[in-house]
């Protein structure tokens, strides 16, 4: 079957060619028109139905993207507070521990201000079962409302544990800020983030 459709376009197009035109109808059909260079697209054009458009079923989560839906199990021991108060002027800093159960942990730790700060491969002895690092030990690192984000992938490591602690200038524990465990499958990844809240005079 066929139908007539009134359409138009800029006849002074800067393209070196006039592209084909296609439309999808509400009934799932594609109608295509191959432009004749000798004609302008301001007249009545004839479109032919060439094939049905197949939409993926709603339950098929992998159609068109090639990846499975993520099913990470997240178990908070100490919930993510969303924002963590620290005073680098007093020597306070954040101590991070990432524990991994698997052959090759893959993760990145990033700042909204400075980009990626650490990756698993940056640590001597990688791959290993525990990675520890600090942030805010240097006063110049202090940025108000900086977003700190840990992203992990489970492609070669099915379990992670993430612990964030607030410490004083001597490294003594002041507070356990966050403690979360994650379990996932090979196609999964997840991230955890919070903002650093500083005393106003720090910035």
Query: What oligomeric state is this?
Result: single chain
Secondary-structure-based class equals mainly beta
User: What do the pLDDT scores average to?
Assistant: 77
Give the distance, in angstroms, between the N- and C-terminal Cα atoms: 70 Å
Strand tally, please?
14
Please describe what this structure looks like.
There is one protein chain. With 203 residues, the chain is mostly beta strands. Helix content is 0%, strand content 46%. The strands form three sheets. A five-stranded antiparallel β-sheet has the order 5-13-12-7-10, with no helix packed on it.
What labels describe this entry?
203 residues, disordered N terminus, 14 strands, single chain, mainly beta, five-stranded antiparallel sheet, globular, five-stranded mixed sheet
In short:
This protein has 203 residues and is mainly β. 0% of the residues lie in helices and 46% in strands. The chain has strands spanning 2-6, 21-24, 29-33, 44-52, 73-78, 83-85, 93-101, 106-111, 115-119, 130-135, 147-153, 159-167, 173-183, 189-197.
Write the layout of secondary structure elements.
Layout: E1 2-6, E2 21-24, E3 29-33, E4 44-52, E5 73-78, E6 83-85, E7 93-101, E8 106-111, E9 115-119, E10 130-135, E11 147-153, E12 159-167, E13 173-183, E14 189-197
Parallel strand pairs: 6-14
Antiparallel strand pairs: 1-4, 2-3, 3-4, 5-13, 7-10, 7-12, 8-9, 8-11, 11-14, 12-13
């Amino acid at each position: 079957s066929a139908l007539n459709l009134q359409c138009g376009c800029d006849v002074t197009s800067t393209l070196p060619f006039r592209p084909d035109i296609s439309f999808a109808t509400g009934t799932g059909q594609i109608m295509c028109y191959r432009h004749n260079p000798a004609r302008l697209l301001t007249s009545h054009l004839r479109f032919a139905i060439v094939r049905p458009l197949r939409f993926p079923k709603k339950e098929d989560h992998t159609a068109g993207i090639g990846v499975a839906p993520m099913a990470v199990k997240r178990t908070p021991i100490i919930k993510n507070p969303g924002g963590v108060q620290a005073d680098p002027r007093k020597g306070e800093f954040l101590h991070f521990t990432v524990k991994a159960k698997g052959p090759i942990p893959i993760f990145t730790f990033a700042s909204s201000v400075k980009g990626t700060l650490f990756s698993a491969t940056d640590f001597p002895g990688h791959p290993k079962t525990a990675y520890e690092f600090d942030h805010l030990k240097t006063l110049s690192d202090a940025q108000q409302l900086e977003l700190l984000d840990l992203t992990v992938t489970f492609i070669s490591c099915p379990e992670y544990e993430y612990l964030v602690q607030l410490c004083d200038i001597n490294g003594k524990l002041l507070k356990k800020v966050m403690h979360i465990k994650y379990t996932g499958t090979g196609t999964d990844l997840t991230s955890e983030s919070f903002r650093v809240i500083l005393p106003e005079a720090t910035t």
